[in-house]
Amino acid sequence: MRTGIATVCLSGTLEEKLRAAAKAGFGGVEIFETDLVTSPLSPERVRALAADLGLGLDLYQPFRDFDSVPEELYRANLRRAEAKFRLMGRLGMDTVLVCSNVATASIDDDALRAEQLHGLAELAGDHGVKVAYEALAWGTYVNDYEHAVKIVADADHPNLGTCLDTFHILSRGWDTEPIEKIPGEKIFFVQVADAPKLSLDVLSWSRHYRVFPGEGQFDLPKFLGHVARAGYNGPVSLEVFNDTFRQADVARTAVDAMRSLIWLEERTARHLAAEASGPGADAPSPAELARASRAYAMPLTTLPQVAPPTGINFAEVISADGAPRTAELERLLAQLGFASRGEHRTKPVSLWTLGDARIVLNRQQARGLEPAISALGFDVEDGVAAAARAVQLRAVPVPRPSQANEEILQAVNAPDGTEVFLCEDTRWIAEFGEDQARTPAAAGGTEDGEWSPSSAGAPPAGSGAARIDHINLAQPWQHFDEAVLFYSSVLALTPEASQDVSSPSGLVRSQVMQTARPEDEAGRRDVRLALNLAPWIQSDSVKGARTDTFQEHVAIEVDDLVAHARACRGRGLPFLPIPENYYEDLDARYGLEPGFLATLRELDLLYDRDAQGAFLHFYTASVGSVFFEVVQRLGGYDGFGAPNAPVRHAVQHAARHGG
Ligand code: MG
Ligand code: MG
Q1: How is 129-145 classified by DSSP, letter by letter?
Q2: Would you tell me how many other CB atoms lie within 10 Å of the CB of residue 136?
Q3: pLDDT tens sequence across 413-456
Q4: Which contacts qualify for 642-647: CB closer than 8 Å, 24 or more apart?
């Protein structure tokens, strides 16, 4: 599949955009008029630069308000078009986009439209140019791609075809099935964009909220499947107007964009393979996938197939060696019921476990840093295949200098810099020595008498079975959509609809990414991640950015939360204090049994319910930007206690500001 990107997707000058697109691996670009008009480069220089970079100049745009106008305006339009065709000749470009008219002065007359587009195509032919006519979702009279295709057929000129744009088609909810009836050679260009489902006028939605494929909610694999079946084999080009992408780092955005097309290409092949097998069939086999990827004129590249992760193997927190914060963190882990499993054989790294929940405390290269979540390990079947897939999706591998006798773990960087490890087992635990167990006292930092070093090392009473339930990561605003695509494409996690949570410093957009819910086991998903888009992040350096909402946490699931909370309280764990107003509201909402409500109040526990079950949880105080949550899922509860999140944000805000 030939990949492309419109210059309007990227920040920077025209030259920076071309260089970034080429470096990310795109086959071609669409040149937006404004980018050329504002460039100091002559058209000849742009052409030479693109040739040097191995980048095709696939589409010039836009040309607007051309069709169905009064005769005098039509003559003026042809003059304007001829100037653009000459310019395209200098650029070496052969396809121009003409959008359906949005002006109120246009005339609702399909015969006139076909006649004027025929005239334009005739002129274009003289210059070796092809005209791709696109129905804008807000076109005054032509806003449906089938209507545009009919006009193109009526105009009947070899230099006139259509451009299909997923936004204009899917935002209006048009049926995509008829795409297959368009002759492949009449589809001159295909533009793809994804978008979140919003209730907004379609023009504003298009101009500001388009995102790359996989970052929104359109069914793009189905769309592109129809395009492939129609016999199209031209560029599949990203046309994404997005306020964030237009100000984010151009090289990063280009890589994110390329990842989205690689993802879409593979999803399209899978969609076609699944359709070939018929409804109710199993996931396509590698042979079926290979067949589907070669079945049509447009070849589709696929990736190593990996199953979604089956668990969170570990979470790593980075914290400066010898710093009081590190001692505080170790004390907090011990108070939570974690046992120290000792130091790594060769590195200043320690391991803490509670049941199957593992926290690695990494003190390497952490000088001056506040404690922060720095790495996550995911349980995968085949680490090498998973890493190969990630690298094909343009993820950057983590360089890992490891000793000869160490487990080799595959890892890639997530967009926010978090290292993502792909683990097949837990043999790496053997690299930590039980006999060299560190205690918080040895780390030099216990400040008060509530916790005693002697309780470290042995699993405390009341811990029972435990595992990591979910991880909550804060994301800087400029990398949020990129992170969603990263975790869905690289780790095969499914994004749920996002929610906005109120906090004293602004709205926090919360995006859950998780594995499918097994049908036989109520509520227990293998992997749950929550990504929070924090407001007002001034710094691009994620770790160590100190704002109220830039807190991250690891949530541990236990079997008996009340008993666990009591044991933690006995060890002096600093709980996040919950205001009395919360409990009054809880009582008003649910009419809880008075004894139970008293227990919640006494232990600073929070409570939520959904259709399947209930959720009990509590939070610890923060150390740096890290805190912990302990949860218990009752029945098939499948959420994250979202109604309680504003309470947490408010109390954490007060704690930071001395409230
Ligand atoms: Mg378009
Ligand atoms: Mg949580």
Answers
A1: -EEEEE--TT-SS--SH
A2: 21
A3: 999 889 999 999 999 999 998 554 444 433 333 334 343 434 44
A4: 642/499, 642/501, 642/510, 642/608, 643/608, 644/582, 644/606, 644/607, 644/608, 644/617, 645/501, 645/508, 645/510, 646/501, 646/502, 646/503, 647/578, 647/579, 647/582, 647/606
Q: Considering its fold, how many domains does the chain have in total?
A: 2
pTM (two decimals): 0.88
Checking if the pLDDT of 349 tops 50, the result is yes
In-domain check, residue 227: yes
Helix intervals (H) in 210-296: 220-229, 250-277, 286-293
**Cα–Cα distance for residue pair 51/233, rounded to 1 Å:** 22
Ligand located closest to 171 CA: 1
pLDDT tens-place string over residues 108-124: 999 999 999 999 999 99
298: closest CA among 369, 235, 347?
A: 235
Residues with CB under 5 A from ligand 1 (ion): 165, 191, 239
Ligand 1 centroid–CA 239 distance in Å is: 6
CA–CA distance, 314 with 419 (Å, rounded to integer): 12
Q: Where is the domain boundary, 232, 249, 266?
A: 249
User: Distance, CA 648 to ligand 2 centroid (Å)?
Assistant: 10
**Parent domain of 407:** 311-554
The reply to whether 491 falls in a domain is: yes
Domain assignment present for residue 59? The answer is yes
The Cα–Cα gap between 65 and 141 comes to 12
Q: Which residues pair with 163 in a beta bridge?
A: 189
Q: Is residue 95 part of a domain?
A: yes
If asked whether residues 381 and 517 sit together in one domain, one would say: yes
